[in-house]
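Worked Example 4.2. Read the sequence first, then its structure tokens.
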Amino acid sequence: MANNKTATFAWWCAATIFLSAFLLSQVQPIISKMILPWFGAGPAVWTACMLFFQVTLLGGYAYAHFIERLPSPRWRMGVHIALIVIAALTLPITPHVSWKPLDGNQPTLRILTLLAGNVGLPYFVLASTGPLVQAWFSRLVPDRSPYRLYALSNVGSLGALLTYPFVFEPLMTTSWQGAMWSGAFAIFAVLCASLAWATFRAGRQPNVATEASPDDVVKIPTPSDEPDHDRLIEAKLVDIDPLERPSLERRLAWLLLPALASMMLLAITNHVCQDVAVVPFFWVAPLGLYLLSFIICFDNSLWYRRLIFGLVTMDAVLLLAITQLDEVVQDLLAKIGVEFDISVYTGELWIEATMYLSMLFLVCMVCHGELVRCKPPAQWLTSFYLMVSAGGALGGIFVALICPQVFSTHMELGIGLVASFMLATGVVWDDIASTWAMKQIWGKAVAVSCAFLLLLVVVRAQFEILNSDALFTVRNFYGVLTVEQILDEEDPEFDIRRLLNGRILHGSQFLAQNRNKDATTYYNPESGIGMAITHLVTPDPMRVAVVGLGTGTI
């Protein structure tokens, strides 16, 4: 009987974590799409939303960490059930039209306030569910590692992200999406509150866990047929004493590795969306790869091969740096008689997007693979997740709040690429440090010299984004505006000054005195509006109504 109860409890934990993770990730594109038109429909809306979700996730993990340290099981159960009930009473999550801003002042603050008022408490409860349920599981089923439930939660999150743009978004209006999500949260509330009560009651019967056989506990699918295979391999890899308190170095790894992964997630999302329509699919793809790396790394330590992923990540960053230095590389090749145009292979949008998304996945695999290698025993589980979520929030704060105030252009991607290259180099170095060649003085000298030269290439490439032709650059919530001047050495009449939003040209003007009134770009005589006016023959002056914004398209 005890065995059956333990198996039922394990399935109950798995179902609760899966549903909470599904709702946790699906609410992000739902609420973001609802408010997207209210705040200019730019990629910064998603960045601000991601910042809110990461910070709230940190709050949920902190709550889980501290509530598990309450001395009374009755208090732990009562506080959490009460919080679930209060969160359910705040439904539905659909924001009222009164939240819509009347001007463009302080958009980030307004987005954060809107999200806190409409989805803050339900998201907080969902965020706390993963570490809490894993803590309950490890207490009542001590023979199984709870970390694979974390992989299951990321499967639920990835499922939510993949189904949203292909199922929920095309079939339902945003109001229906909000209503369906609110109904699913009510089901989750009943499920989680019941599990909390069952855990409280089971905790008063200590023989339940000890009488259960490990074979009766639900197991998440694994490529290994041996029940303890993963646990033994993980212990060998990290060599952790279960009774030893995690060191400061290990805790910093828990913080900084997720921070870099989060930073690259937001920076690459911004870059991919900068010149593309801001639709949920372009938010989902990077976030889906980010979660996929969590699933792979936390499912089984064997999936992450340090040397392979370290070397591939180094090569990928270096290749991307070469494409950023395309003109420099082409000039060098021309000097040795080689004609090769890199832009032919990188000019297509899908090629560029694939390059950056692949880069994101590799960096996340290295970050999360190293994170798994230094994860602690189960008694430090909530502390571990607290530091991981703090790292994610730290990366989000850096990209969404600090960078727009400090930099006039998108420098965070360049900083992230340099940091990723250094991390991958460090991983490779650590993995080959015990080889014969690395034990020799000449081997270390060659390795250091090669790593330093390659790092210089990566760093040099990041300066290419600082446009030397720019007269003025300004960055705000809605993007980066650049005014640049291009001089024609052969014919000064073709000298122009132009305005760009990111890499999109929004207007230009000839500098020559006799041509500075000529229509250009969208407005030249060969454009649609130019042809319409040219062919409109009338003896009277034309009255033309023009709708546009600044130098935007008519």
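Now turn to a second chain, presented in exactly the same format:
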Amino acid sequence: MANSCIKAVGSWTPGPNAVSQDPVAILRNLKNPFFAVSSPSVWRGKNLPFTLYGNGSCQFESASSAGSLPLLAIAPPLLPNTLGQESFRRIYSLRYACLSGSMANAIASEDLVLAMAKSGMMGFFGSAGLSLDEVAKHIHSLKSKLGNLPYGLNLIHSPSDPQLENNLAKLFIAENINCIEASAFLGLTPALLHYRYSGLKRLADGSIYAPHHVFAKISRLEVASKLLSPPPPEMITSLVDQGALTAEEAELARFVPPASALTAEADSGGHTDNRPAFGLLPSVINLRDRMQERFGWNVPVGVAGGIATPQAAAAAFAMGAAYVMTGSINQACVESGSSDAVREMLAKASPADVAMAPAADMFEMGVNVQVLKWGTMFPVRAKRLYEIYRAYASFDEVPTAVKDQIEKTMLRASFAEAWQSTKAFFAKRDPRQIAKAESDPKHMMALVFRSYLGQASRWANAGLPDRRADYQIWCGPSMGSFNQWCKGTFLENVKERHADLAALNIMAGACVLTRAALIANQGVEIPAQWSCFEPLPFQELASLLQESL
């Protein structure tokens, strides 16, 4: 092996009980350093030109002392609670720089948020898709369950319903919600700026206190640039004129970036641009660094989309991520607001079992979301509806055979009946849409088709057996990666999948892999089996980390 040609970096002297232990155990002893020493050893019948030791002392001078051996490489202690950005963990009172994203329709449920918070992480509740009253009820419930533990809610961009976006921002302000995850935004909006800058004040020491934190999910640099720049004066002035911001808040807004943190959203489930994390994250970090030089503020950058294995997390932190965020894999966990039927489907997915399909909330704009294609016809049917919407000015123009197929297989009602139920929904949600639809047949068709798309997610969450072919399940390819990692372990059983347990295993495994990579980058090639990390149950994981979980 190439290790025999490695030049020693120093010398190693054995400690009191310097016995070569199981190399896997040494790699997993995360609280202590380990040393690769130039001393032949045998592992599973293979001769190795080095030995790993978990104790002893080393020196880097050229001269070696009596009883010492040449030191080839060293790996320091590395624990999950030191991964990521220390200041980020401190500001948000987190033990681990790991978050869970907000999956709409309460798929990112109260139980999921609670599990993450109790384990020293933070989750965002999936408030998108819920009515204002429903969100308010969940807020009160979350407050009673979590107390001072960290958590947040989702504010999703709603171009077709800006009033809902505004009302949610006002609700979050009124309820003193300190953190939100802003997702699917194409730029800055009044609602986002209202939430961010409400409550700004200058403290006695001259610093600015900002009570509201925006974790903005982005996948485009032009959007990230807006979130890292001072807010547009005209938007701030408008908010002052409306009474949403005070003159003092407007003045201080010039010195506070719209985003408190940026989450580079790579190839994720739901709204996504399918960006590769290896290209997106460094680009966002480089942009942040340039903006920091220009404006003087430091915005942490994390990454989501693909965080489903220790390898992915280790790579993210190696690239400079302040934190990682899990997403698709949480939907397959017992705490999610989805159904057992969906969890079983997700547990069988491979990385290739995903597809893009039209988004219900941005249907007319041609925006897509990434969904599971295994076991459901939804991606095919949703795309067909969008093609028909683009091709015809009204449902009446659609060929009879196509209309019959849509009414029979998707709407399961006549178009007229489907419009009446859609109309009843918008009578409560946004009555302006009804008037527009009744004067514009194409808009009516869009609303009815959007109704199917929106309900498809709810059918999946409810696990309705007669609608299984129409399940819309937001999912990225990382779900398949997670399944491959869990194959043959206790986490292959969906009933054993807990969101916080999965996240902690990913973080612990990232530490093992990072330490193995450190000595590999010093020239010591270790067998791949030594750094393999399979998921561990809570008790074994707690023993490994030597802390209570």
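Notes for the reader: The first helix runs from residue 23 to 28. The CA atoms of residues 211 and 358 lie 36 Å apart.
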